[in-house]
Amino acid sequence: MNTLSYKTVSANKNTVNKEWVVVDADGQSLGRLASKVAKLIRGKYKPNYTPHVDCGDNVVIINAEKINLTGNKWADKTYIRHTGYPGGQRSLTATEMFAKDPARLIEKAVKGMLPKNRLGSALFKNLYVYAGTEHGQEAQKPKAINLNDLK
């Protein structure tokens, strides 16, 4: 038989090439930034993407304190948690959470866009968010990318 045979190539942890990437959140909208970063962490921009493997990049986000929220989300968006005790539901607005820690806004947004399983927990560890321009990953020589160039 004279036909070509194409094999589907699945990535595994030995064949994956993970890179370090720096993303500047200055002036970016929270949801749009989070969705693109989640795709980067997941590896969806790579040709060898495999759904069940951590084949994404390590992402460092800087300038988290310069993030934008559109509309009335600073006052209306609420983050709800529960202490585990009866009547223990607590909530924070986006403004209150931003005042405590600006990096947590981005972390929560990206974590909500990752899978809700062990792979998602492992992928979330590839995210590093910093409020200022200084970050602790200079030794990895991350390359800066512009999120507006990504689809």
Q: Can you walk through the features of this model?
A:
By secondary structure, the chain is of the alpha/beta class. The protein is 27% helix and 17% strand. It is built from five helices and six strands; from the N terminus they run βαβαββαααββ. The chain has helices spanning 30-42, 73-76, 94-100, 102-111, 118-124, and strands at residues 20-24, 58-62, 78-82, 89-93, 127-129, 143-145. It has a four-stranded parallel beta sheet with strand order 5-2-1-6, with helices on one face. Helix 1 (30-42) links the parallel strand 1 and strand 2. The chain is globular, with a radius of gyration of 18 Å.
Secondary-structure map:
Layout: E1 20-24, H1 30-42, E2 58-62, H2 73-76, E3 78-82, E4 89-93, H3 94-100, H4 102-111, H5 118-124, E5 127-129, E6 143-145
Parallel strand pairs: 1-2, 1-6, 2-5
Antiparallel strand pairs: 3-4
Distance between the termini: 41 Å
Strand element count: 6
The secondary structure category is: alpha/beta
Summed over residues and divided by their number, the pLDDT gives a mean of 93
Number of helices: 5
Morphology: globular
Order of helices and strands: EHEHEEHHHEE
Spatial strand arrangement across the major sheet: 5-2-1-6
Estimate percent helicity: 25-40%
Strand content: 15-25%
Rg, Å, rounded: 18 Å
Largest sheet: 4 strands, parallel
Descriptive tags:
single chain; alpha/beta; 27% helix; globular
Quick recap:
The chain is of the alpha/beta class. The chain is 27% helix and 17% strand.
